[in-house]
């Protein structure tokens, strides 16, 4: 017989893992959903804007760069610039095992951070995050209206991640077609490796991801 909670008289094995916001007394099914709530809820605006919060919150990309203990990581720099500096610092040669391993870890961190800012759930909160990033105003009231508003918009995924990291009020640069986006991506080195399964991934994420190469 499974052990039971005495006050509730419920077996412990019926409980599913939850991620709680103690300030709002709400629970979420995943850490990504909780992060999305903390980012988008007006109740947390003052906390998000505080210097202490911005300094103490470590994201997957921060963890990646800080895993190289002798590397002087500056979070205020762009991600592409930080990675180039890291390559030079470590002296990696293109195609070497160390370089390939670091690139894969960097792309994994980008993917985790994309989920953190935009991809926890297919809901209005996720759509509104994308709409704010590309400057859609006023925010549509339904997921369908959001999808229609961003349907023809093209933006660099790394730029979108950096927008989330910086809580910027300025919108992300957008492009009229994939060809323009491809040129920009190659020139800036802001490359995101799209490994999402198009059938399984969040519909919001599918609007962020374009075939560049």
Strand content: 5-15%
Estimate the global geometry from the Cα principal axes. globular
Strands of the widest sheet, in order across it, are 1-2
Distance between the termini: 56 Å
What is the arithmetic mean of pLDDT?
78
Largest pleated sheet: 2 strands, antiparallel
Instruction: Bin the helical content.
Output: 40-55%
Number of helical runs?
11
Computed CA radius of gyration, to the nearest angstrom: 19 Å
The ordered H/E elements are EEEEHHHHHHHHEHEHH
Structural class: mainly alpha
Total count of strands:
6
Taking pLDDT < 50 over at least 5 consecutive residues as the criterion, the unreliable ranges are 12-16, 42-55
Summarize the structure.
With 213 residues, this protein is mainly alpha-helical. The chain is built from eleven helices and six strands.
Overview of this protein structure:
The chain is mainly α and 213 residues long. It has helices at 31-40, 45-49, 51-56, 60-66, 79-90, 97-118, 124-134, 143-150, 157-166, 178-188, 203-208; strands at residues 4-5, 10-11, 19-21, 26-28, 154-155, 174-175. A two-stranded antiparallel ribbon has the order 1-2. Helix 4 (60-66) packs antiparallel against helix 6 (97-118), helix 6 crosses helix 9 and helix 7 (124-134) runs parallel beside helix 8. The chain is globular.
């Amino acid at each position: 017989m499974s052990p039971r909670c005495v006050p509730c008289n419920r077996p412990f094995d019926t409980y599913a893992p939850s991620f709680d916001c103690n300030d709002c007394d709400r629970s979420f099914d995943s850490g990504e959903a909780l992060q999305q709530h903390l980012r988008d809820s007006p109740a947390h605006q003052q906390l998000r804007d505080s210097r202490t919060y911005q300094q103490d919150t470590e994201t997957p990309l921060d963890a990646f760069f800080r895993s190289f203990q002798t590397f002087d990581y500056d979070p205020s720099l762009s991600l592409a610039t930080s990675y180039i500096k890291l390559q030079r610092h470590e002296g990696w040669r293109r195609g070497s095992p160390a370089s390939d391993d670091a690139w894969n870890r960097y792309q994994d961190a980008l993917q985790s951070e994309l989920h953190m800012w935009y991809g926890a759930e297919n809901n209005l909160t996720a759509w509104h995050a994308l709409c704010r990033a590309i400057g859609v105003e006023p925010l549509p009231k339904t997921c369908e209206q959001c999808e229609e508003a961003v349907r023809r918009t093209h933006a660099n995924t790394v730029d979108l991640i950096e927008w989330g990291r910086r809580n910027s009020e300025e919108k992300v640069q957008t492009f009229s077609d994939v060809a323009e986006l491809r040129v920009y991506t190659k020139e800036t080195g802001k490359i995101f490796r799209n490994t999402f399964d198009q059938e399984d991934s969040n519909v919001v994420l599918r609007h962020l991801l374009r075939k560049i190469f």
